[in-house]
């Protein structure tokens, strides 16, 4: 436990005071009841800078109990420096168990990735969200985007997708591809790659999203319809890693990191998800996500 | 693998922590005492307390020491600390008319009741690098204080009293009027709930009081330079001590102490649109912890601009001003660019490569088409 030496008192369990944690949990319940809807919340200041995962931390700290096991990843990696720092903070203030193994975790806090390994109904995945508003790039004012969501007025968004196709021949949105949740709200999935988008749909686990700086929470409960936005004749597609194999494991059905070698020309690819890669190397059994986009790739379509 | 080398993260953090501590003390100088910072870095402390949103000079001094003199970082530490404190009371509205005045000036009138009190200010002191301060010693300070105290006439001190406000003069004459007749008077607590726009004035004032001085100055300045409501006149700027009262659980009013604040009232002329109505004056209001006149003045400009009802300039737009003068959040988010983004980047890279490929293919097929076309035409010519 971190101590405040001057008054010789300990910080509360999970750092945030109980009444604020309760408030966050209430807002999370609301978010789960209205999938994809952004719920404003108090977002107290953390000893972690805004934009560095405070929203994810608020959720994790509000829901974590002494029995929980936490996994913390950033860009798919357990060893990323910020993930180490956040993991250390939660561990110090709660004393809960920590793990790198995706299957052992009850709560997984993540930045920019969904694990390659499929999650069960005993697990909660918490996303750190920089920009919760998917419409921000078509409408800059919060006051107006709230109205647009309320009226399900998404014309500007569709038009932007169409314009992207006309200008560049494709919907050029990379990470953070906007999705339609249960045929009602357009939602930002946080900047996960398109590779992960199909795995939001009809999941077993709960997906919770926290945007600390913008003070918004939202959720995708299990078995929810989550569809990437696409036009009838211009379809969503995931990143193309068809003929790319991991230099370390030889695996090819995963999101890859591209690494330039020291000569500055040649490239090698490695499986991005660190725990998944470890399991591949140790030849452990792993249940991967399945979705139609992956199958499409494998059939060479 | 760059800075995500496997399991290296934890060690790297520990080393960075140690190294930054080394940089703080590496020259074997005497540690600065908190008491010294608290008394000799008064204006820095005031800024930290304002932006950190916690009135505690001692902790502010500690934060400044910890952060090697970075005022905004210190304010961040204070904010994080204050978030762990339970809110037990809301204070009564402070009465700045009852302020124990240390400084008060008005630029609207040559003379005001109680006079212009310059107080502690460097406004009229030439900003020349004071080389005498280089090797200042305790004896000099002692001597200065002795001389200073000797000059004070204790009999006169009893005469210090409370002064009326300049804006009351205008109010009594009917020149000063509320701008909006029915504006939203709801009192929110921005530390307890997320802001929704359009937000009531209480939100504007709370967020500006916690705002970052530099950011507020940039927007306030832009407003005066022509991107906003214009050049007001300071009705009154005062700095001094005010009393804080709270109501305890039994509803009894309790006096809990005094704080220093700077208050600014900016007078601007409001031109009415209706022909029948004459123009009138309205004020923009600024109130900040400690002595931070730049911030108080800019707060009053921005408050006035936001209420002008014409959001065309950035400094008049409530959402723009409040979101972007929030220094601790702005600093966090701009610095988050240092975090790895390679997954996000890969996703965009993938798209871009495909777009380039499409572009090349399109050009090639166009070339083929035109070549075939010109061949056809040549044939026709020959025939």
Brief rundown of the structure:
With 301 residues, chain A is α/β, with parallel strands linked by helices.
Overview of this protein structure:
The complex is a heterodimer of chains A (301) and B (383). The radius of gyration of chain A is 20 Å and the shape is globular. Helix content of chain A is 26%, strand content 18%. With 301 residues, chain A is α/β, with parallel strands linked by helices. Chain A has a 7-stranded mixed β-sheet with strand order 3-11-10-7-6-4-5. Chain A contains 7 helices and 14 strands. Chain A starts with a strand and ends with a helix. In chain A, helix 3 links the parallel strand 4 (69-74) and strand 5. Chain A has helices at residues 18-33, 54-63, 81-94, 142-150, 155-168, 274-281, 292-298; strands spanning 3-4, 9-10, 39-40, 69-74, 97-98, 107-111, 124-128, 179-181, 185-187, 206-211, 216-220, 226-228, 256-260, 267-271. In chain A, helix 1 packs across helix 2. The longest helix of chain A is centred in the first third of the chain and has 16 residues, at 18-33. By secondary structure, chain B is α+β, with helices and mostly antiparallel strands. Chain B is 46% helix and 13% strand. Chain B contains 14 helices and 4 strands. Chain B has helices at residues 8-25, 34-40, 42-52, 57-66, 71-82, 138-151, 154-157, 166-173, 201-209, 213-224, 293-306, 318-324, 327-335, 342-382, and strands spanning 100-105, 233-247, 253-270, 280-289. Chain B has a 4-stranded antiparallel β-sheet. The radius of gyration of chain B is 29 Å and the shape is extended. The chains are: A alpha/beta (301), B alpha+beta (383). At the A-B interface, helix 3, helix 4 and strand 13 of A face helix 1, helix 5, helix 13 and helix 14 of B.
């Amino acid at each position: 436990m971190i101590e405040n030496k001057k008054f010789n008192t300990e910080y509360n369990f999970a750092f945030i005071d109980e009444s604020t944690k309760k408030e966050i949990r209430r807002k999370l319940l609301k978010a789960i009841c209205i999938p994809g809807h952004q719920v404003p919340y108090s977002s107290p200041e953390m000893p972690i800078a805004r934009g560095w995962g405070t929203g994810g931390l608020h959720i994790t700290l509000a829901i974590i109990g002494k029995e929980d096991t936490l996994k913390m990843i950033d860009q798919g990696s357990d060893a990323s420096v910020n993930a180490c720092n956040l993991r250390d903070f939660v561990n110090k203030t709660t004393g809960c168990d920590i793990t790198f193994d995706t299957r052992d975790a009850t709560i997984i806090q993540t930045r920019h990735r969904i694990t390659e390994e499929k999650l069960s109904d005993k697990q909660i995945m918490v996303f750190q969200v920089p920009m919760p508003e998917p419409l921000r790039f078509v409408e800059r004012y919060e006051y107006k985007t709230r109205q647009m969501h309320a009226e399900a007025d998404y014309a500007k968004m569709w038009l932007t997708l169409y314009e992207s196709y006309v200008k560049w021949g494709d919907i050029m949105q990379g990470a953070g591809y906007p999705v339609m949740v249960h045929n009602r709200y357009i939602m930002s999935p946080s900047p996960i790659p398109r590779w992960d988008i199909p795995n939001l749909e009809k999941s077993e686990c709960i997906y919770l999203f926290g945007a600390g700086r913008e003070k918004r929470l939202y959720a995708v409960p299990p078995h929810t319809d989550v569809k990437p936005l696409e036009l009838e004749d211009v379809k969503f597609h995931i990143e193309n890693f068809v003929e790319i194999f991991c230099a370390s494991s030889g695996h090819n059905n995963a999101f890859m990191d591209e690494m330039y070698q020291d000569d500055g020309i040649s490239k090698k690819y490695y499986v991005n998800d660190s725990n998944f890669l470890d399991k591949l190397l140790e030849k452990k059994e792993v249940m991967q996500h399945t979705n139609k986009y992956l199958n499409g790739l494998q059939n060479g379509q | 693998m760059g800075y995500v080398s496997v399991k290296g993260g934890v060690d790297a953090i520990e080393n960075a922590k140690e190294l930054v501590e080394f940089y703080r003390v590496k020259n074997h100088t005497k540690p600065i005492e908190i008491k010294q910072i608290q008394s000799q870095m008064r204006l820095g402390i005031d800024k930290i307390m304002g932006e950190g949103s916690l009135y505690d000079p001692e902790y502010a001094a500690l934060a400044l020491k910890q952060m090697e003199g970075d005022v905004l970082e210190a304010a961040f530490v204070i904010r994080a600390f204050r978030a762990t404190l339970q809110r037990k009371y809301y204070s009564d509205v402070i009465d700045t008319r009852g302020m124990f005045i240390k400084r008060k000036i008005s630029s609207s009138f040559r003379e005001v009741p109680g006079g212009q009190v310059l107080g502690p200010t460097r406004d009229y002191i030439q900003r020349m690098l004071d080389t005498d301060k280089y090797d200042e010693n305790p004896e000099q300070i002692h001597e200065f204080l002795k001389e200073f105290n000797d000059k004070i006439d204790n009999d006169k001190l009893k005469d210090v009293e409370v002064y009326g406000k300049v804006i009351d003069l205008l109010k009594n004459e009917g020149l000063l009027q509320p701008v909006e007749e029915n504006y939203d008077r709801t009192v929110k607590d921005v530390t307890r709930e997320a802001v929704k726009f359009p937000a009531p004035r209480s939100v504007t004032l709370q967020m500006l009081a916690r705002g970052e001085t530099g950011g507020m100055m940039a927007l306030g300045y832009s407003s005066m330079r022509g991107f906003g409501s214009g050049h007001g006149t300071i009705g009154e700027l005062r700095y001094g001590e005010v009393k804080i009262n709270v109501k305890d659980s039994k509803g009894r009013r309790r006096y809990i102490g005094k704080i220093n604040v700077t208050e600014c009232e900016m007078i601007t002329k409001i031109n009415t649109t209706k022909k029948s109505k004459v123009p009138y004056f309205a004020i923009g209001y600024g109130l900040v912890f400690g002595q931070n006149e730049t911030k108080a003045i800019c707060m009053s400009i921005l408050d006035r601009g936001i209420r002008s009802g014409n959001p065309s300039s950035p400094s008049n737009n409530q959402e723009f001003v409040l979101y972007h003068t929030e220094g601790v959040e702005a600093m966090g988010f701009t610095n988050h660019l240092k975090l790895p983004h390679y997954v996000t980047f890969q996703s965009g890279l993938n798209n871009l490569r495909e777009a380039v490929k499409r572009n090349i293919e399109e050009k090639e097929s166009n070339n083929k088409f035109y070549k075939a076309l010109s061949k056809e035409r040549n044939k026709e010519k020959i025939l």
